[in-house]
Amino acid sequence: MRIGILGLGRIGAFHAETLAGLDSVGSLVVADPFADAAKAAAERFGAEVADSPEAVLAAGVDGVVIAAATVAHPDLILAAVEAGVPVFCEKPVARTMAEGVEVLKALAGRDVPVQIGYQRRFDTGFAAARAAVRSGELGPLHTVRSTTLDPAPPPAAYVAASGGIFRDCSVHDFDSIRWVTGREVSEVYAVGGNRGADYIREAGDADTTGAVLTLDDGTVAVVSNSRHNARGYDVRMEIHGFDDSIAVGLEDRLPLRSVEPGVTFPAGTPHDFFMDRFTAAYRAELTAFTEVVAGARPSPCTVEDALEAGWIAEACTLSLHEHRPVTIAEVRRG
Predict the structure, then answer these.
(1) Rounded distance between C-alpha atoms, residue 20 and residue 122, angstroms
(2) Are residues 75 and 160 in the same domain?
């Protein structure tokens, strides 16, 4: 099939490389506001270069991958759907929840599929955890712990436009918790602080946060995030039930050092970046998108799914700033 790519920054170029390696993809058509980025992709992957998103959509593409700046997501999603082209869009749907809700309303009644990029849904460990929960082998759940620790903070310009650590980083934990447990979050309480880069504090954000989420069945989920984890990129989840407990991410590349006598785990080189940790998941995610394009499956992560994770991020942001518990119902009401 013929796939368009809008945006060729770090993640867009990574997606181009992944798509170029899929047997089901025969050609790529790419566009980026920076001509050099599009030219580099064309030379590296044999892609065709278009001078605008409109030109990509008019180039006979079967599907389009949106990896452009967040501010452009709503218009590009709607333009692709209007053209009848299935869409894969990196998270978030939009800069704000209000804009995201407007996108959802505009898509009502349309039958063109839209998939939002939450790659942990395609990681083998997270998928196995979901299967274990859904099979009932853990029994009723009582505790979930989800962790995302970055090895170093992103640049100041990125932080200033990210919407905050809950909207940018923790949202992956929030989506994973919903997806693995099959439950919704009813209330949150979040805390955070800054002990690292001054520009994060100056942007009104936190570099290290913790959030306690109460799920709709009473399960307690604890989410831990930081921009400062010098040992590497650490993504884990623990799921504890009344009959058994399991973990995602306890493998030899875990960036954590045991000080127990005689213990050599973990023995491998630590993960150092999200693309390193989730290379296989990204490939599976885009393979799933080609199946969506072919009509072989529905979207595995819809706009509605993305907005649900976004509401949790909104509630945590409000909780952090106001030092109080916040219900999801409260932020939905605005």
Answers:
(1) 19
(2) no
CB 95: neighbour CB atoms within 10 A? 18
92 preceded by a cis bond (ω within 30 of 0): yes
- Tell whether 223 and 317 lie within a shared domain: yes
197-215 pLDDT, tens digit per residue, is 899 999 999 999 999 999 9
Provide the residue range defining the domain that includes 22: 2-112
Cα–Cα distance between 138 and 160 in angstroms, integer?
A: 41
Token readout for 193 is 């602080």
Query: Using an 8 Å Cβ cutoff, are 248 and 132 in contact?
Result: no
Residue 95 shares a structural domain with residue 181: no
pTM score: 0.95
**For 215-233, what is each residue's pLDDT tens digit?**
999 999 999 999 999 999 9
- Least Cα distance to 11 among 88, 82, 109 occurs for 88
| 127 and 150 housed in the same domain | yes
